[in-house]
Amino acid sequence: xxxxxxxxxxxxxxxxxxxxxxxxxxxxxxxTHRLIKGLLVTYKSGKYCDVTLxxxxxxxxxxxxxxxxxxxxxxxxxxxDNWEEGKKDEIEVLGLDEDAVSDLIEFAYSGHVDISKxxxxxxxxxxxxxxxxxxKKSCEDFLRNAIDDRTCLGIWQLADLFSLEExxxxxxxxxxxxxxxxxxxxxxxxxxxxxxTDLIADEGLCVVIDExxxxxxxxxxxxxxxVFRYIEHELHSRKDHFPELLSLVRIPTLSESFLEEVAKxxxxxxxxxxxxxxxxxxxxxxxxKGSQSTDIRWASPxxxxxxxxIWGRCFAIGGQGQPETLxxxxxxxxxxxxxxxxxxxxxxxxxxxxxxPVVGALKVYYSNNRETKYGYSTNExxxxxxxxxxxxxxxxxxxxxxxxxxQLTFYTNKKDAHGNRRKFGPYGGNGGGFYCETPAGSYGFLxxxxxxxxxxxxxxxxxxxxFAWKTFVFPEDPLPPKGRCRADDMLEDYYSDExxxxxxxxxxxxxxxxxxxxxxx
Length: 521
Known about the structure:
There is one protein chain. It is built from 21 helices and 17 strands. By secondary structure, it is an alpha+beta fold. It has three domains: about 35-145, Potassium Channel Kv1.1, Chain A (2-Layer Sandwich); about 150-305, Serine Threonine Protein Phosphatase 5, Tetratricopeptide repeat, CATH 1.25.40; about 310-515, Vitelline Membrane Outer Layer Protein I, subunit A. A hairpin with a 5-residue loop joins strand 11 (about 405-415) and strand 12. Helix 5 packs across helix 6. The radius of gyration is 36 Å and the shape is flat. The N and C termini lie far apart (about 115 Å).
């Protein structure tokens, strides 16, 4: 060093021109990498270490105070001037998983850590305790991607324990949205009571059975049965919570027959549940003397999503042959959100045109036992018919259509022996283009149809076919377009004062919102 200084002194100071003002800003692109690599080498070799960490009964790590203080809030505080413990040559970090602490110390030198299902919990605990925010946030991201029916409640508890607000919200929202599957897992029976009441009381709790949301008087059955299982799992220590949990279940929304049946359960009678069921029956009958606002909420179905009626696209817009001779629609029934009417079966007449088979007529079977035929059938038609099982609804339709409807295939929420959606069809021919329609929103189902009928050279067929879906739109779902019923629009135009009617097309008869077949001579 002395020789170098002497050599430098032997050289006179450079005499730069006063006009020379250039400054060269130098940045070594790999300096950070070289620094981290150098720190890791010194850590592995034990060079220049100035503190020992005792992380277990026998395991110790040598490290550098400056590195520890730079990556951990815990060590930054401990190694400062205010703590005598931090001035010792050996510092104890006990009570945490040894591998997790070791991984975090190495992360301080390398900037790298592996997070897996085997270490995420211990790593999260250690990172939270030592104040290593980057690793803590990385564990949160890992857990968010791991949420499913089996893990969501455990992850919710971890998020609650370590104050991970985003993960807490995400895990709880998943549990609410998938409650039917979640409540059947072992983790549900071990859920802390405070979190259980938070879950059961939430307006967003959603019951789904066979990929559909049941009718209002069936939804709370799943919630009530889940409460029964939770209490019975540790009956002695939990039975005193039974009345409070029952008050969080929307019992008055259940059917009267079900209420009478459940009130006879031994658990209800031995754990002071009879009074609540009696009150539920009075609330249901409108004779309760309780708080009106409380009773209204208790007796109301949960508002977990908006229930909407949506019209799909219009298939087979016509354009050839004679104009449509009738329009048919069940718009009034479909758009009445006070009923749960849906399509529970169909009968199809397939007419054989020169161009191939086409859909000539439909008979729709509705869940309110109504049957309505749309279109005209001939004796030569090929006939197909199907009916749905209990809790089975149409959730997808494949359509082949050009200027008439050539073919229809219906899929339901039920699964076949191979795990595929049960389907009916295809019915009709292979003409036209291929289209697939499913309802927007979530858990939607076919609620009705609309369209028109056409006669082309003595052959009848369906055109302008539209399907109406009832669906649930959750807060996180994109807002679906409502759509319009084309047949209803055409009828309004037909009957408007502004429309000039040809004598060739007299009034089309209408009955109770549905159009009966009409065919001019």
